[in-house]
Amino acid sequence: MSNNQFPPDDGSPLSSSGLKAGASRGHSVMAGWVLTRPGPLGSAQLDFQWHRDLPVPMPNSKEVLLKVRTCGVCHTDLHTLEGDLQAPPGPLIPGHQVVATVESISADNAWVPIPPGLEAGWAERLIANSGGGTAKGLWLRPGRRVGVPWLFGTCGTCQYCRSGDENLCEHPHFTGLSRNGGYAEYLVALAPFLVPIPERFNDDEAAPLLCAGIIGYRSLRLAGIGPGVAANLGLYGFGASAHLTMQLALAWGHAVYVFTRSQEHRRLALLLGARWAGAPEEMSPELLDAAITFAPVGAVIPLALRSLAKGGTLAVNAVHLDGVPAFGYDLLYGERSIRSVANATRKDAWEWMYWADISGTKPIVQQYDAKNLPMALTRLKHGDIRGSAVVRIASSSSDPSPKGLQ
After folding, report:
1. Which of 16, 41, 100, 267 has CA atoms 20 to 30 A from the CA of 231?
2. What is the value of pTM for the model shown?
3. What pLDDT digit, counting tens, does each position of 331-356 carry?
4. Kind of pairing between the strands at 98-104 and 145-148
5. How many Cβ atoms are within 10 Å of 277's Cβ, its own excluded?
6. Per-residue model confidence as pLDDT tens digits over 238-288
7. Which domains does the chain have, with CATH numbers?
8. Strands annotated E in 84-230
């Protein structure tokens, strides 16, 4: 088995009696949020409850046991809870922007290897700024802080994995969807898919870097934006991912135009350095060389195309979209292109962490205790989060019983 591959399992994130039992330095149970039945937020159909007596998961020979410190709240979590994304049958612990510390490892999992194709100098600096290692990779030891991203593991054998496009793997697993995630005190992960976290980011700041940041970085690259010749970039939506994406684009010397219905988000965009901010229905004051849509709303696509220059690329950053409306071919004509953004590779994750570190990117976060996760999800759904929402999981089992979503 290559170190890309995940080991076989029983096909269910949780067994019928709960998590596969394990042990962690004397801890046999943990607290966490469990999704038993998906449904619209606020509906009687949804069953999402806090449990105090979940068995600590037992890592197999390819996995590392981690103790969760914080977990970012993502729109993908909303799609999971509401049933927009298909999860395997059975209870599930969501959450996939996980900042955690190593609890136990095996001799086979002592390193996080450097992804193939990553520039050696970038890897060296990122490893040095994330706690240290060698040319082999990031050294793992008990207590070492690491990140767990959306991509839990890939098959390592399909045509996409073999060609370096592991984000398109035919048989992937995703943290918080097909494998249990970070809305609990412990989780297991595959060492090769862990992400170094630069020490300058605290736990709250680090969490949104692990999905919102990574996928925003991939969106930039797919839209043709990188360091070099300055370009006009449009961002449609301004939540967790966009506010990080914009900071890197500005550090690369690009002009950023933000389109959002939220007055508060427009103010934040201008505060962070956007050249202009307005509503999605407005035309950009300058033609855009590239644009990225972040909202899971297909109606934004033709609005963005109206302001896109000939030859420009529109990247659609959404794991779920409500549909794409019909629009005139004139919006696409002129060699404009539309690209979907599907997951991210380990190379994307490491490159993003390198750039976020050296560019001075500063995540804006709103912190919530674990018991208040339902409040964070509700505010996220209604667009009331400024920057990113993060829940603090560490020591959450001593909190008063929170109210679930049911």
Report:
1. 267
2. 0.91
3. 999 999 999 999 999 999 999 999 99
4. antiparallel
5. 23
6. 999 999 999 999 999 999 999 999 999 999 999 999 999 999 999 999 999
7. 29-211+344-398 (3.90.180.10), 214-340 (3.40.50.720)
8. 98-104, 111-113, 133-134, 137-139, 145-148, 151-153, 173-174, 186-190
9 — phi, psi (to 5°)? -140, -170
Of 319 and 16, the structure prediction assigns the larger pLDDT to 319
What's the confidence (pLDDT) of residue 5? 42
Cβ contact 261:280 at 8 Å: yes
Please, what's the largest Cα pairwise distance for the chain?
A: 65
Dump the DSSP string for 136-167.
TEEEP-TT-EEEE-SEEEB-S-SHHHHTT-GG
Which pLDDT does position 375 carry in this prediction? Answer: 96
* Type of residue numbered 81: L
Rg, C-alpha atoms of the chain: 20
Four-point Cα dihedral 119, 123, 126, 131, nearest 10: 180
Show Cβ contacts of residue 6 under 8 Å, excluding neighbours closer than 6 positions: 62, 152, 153, 154, 155, 173, 190
AA letter at 212: A
187 alpha-carbon distance from chain centroid? 16
What pLDDT digit, counting tens, does each position of 38-73 carry? Answer: 999 999 999 999 999 999 999 998 899 999 999 999
